[in-house]
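Q: A reviewer asked whether we had any structural model of the full assembly, not just the individual parts. We don't, so I'm hoping you can provide one. Inputs are below.
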Amino acid sequence: QVQLVESGGGLVKPGGSLRLSCAASGFTFSDYYMSWIRQAPGKGLEWVSFISNSGTTITYADSVKGRFTISRDNAKNSLYLQMNSLRAEDTAVYYCARYCSSTRCSAYDYWGQGTLVTVSS
Amino acid sequence: EIVLTQSPATLSLSPGERATLSCRASQSVSSYLAWYQQKPDQAPRLLIYDASNRAAGIPARFSGSGSGTDFTLTISSLEPEDFAIYYCQHRSVWPHTFGQGTKLEI
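A: Here is a predicted structure for the entire assembly that you could use as a starting point for your response.
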């Protein structure tokens, strides 16, 4: 069955860095586009970043552009989010989510359980 | 960016009743609109994609309709497990924004 497992969250000081990982299994990872989506405590969902299946197309929300970098390693079935210059407003649960394959699309059909990032001094 | 506005913010109903949730886009998203359900301390679950297609394993009591800027999620007869927060999201252009959510409560 499809599984997405995030890791790498934790407590970090403002201005610090953190790298999130998402381990995928149960499907052909290299066929699928992927995204990171976050949710601040008690708030709604915010799309953060997208990467195509080959990694050649990448987009970011304006709120993280220039600070966050999405990447993937298809050989390791893994998705990453490098977060630099972290701010208090980046505090959230970060989810990795499966988007479309190269042949079909049904929105964000699988999500991980999320990893909590807390930015605080 | 496209702004999605959900209404009402909170909907109070009883099991067995019909629920109608609305999502309005600030500009046309064609049919590229999805609905998600989120329960406390859980990840969102895809219910409906492309406005009216039920995702795998989603009960038939959930249905979606609409196109362009106005969309509706209908739950025909509420079950106790349906009380949750519901979000709409478009995938028309980047960024793929979400609505602010509708809390469906007993």
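A: Points you may want to mention in the reply: The first strand of chain B starts at residue 4 and ends at 7. The two ends of chain B are 34 Å apart (CA to CA).
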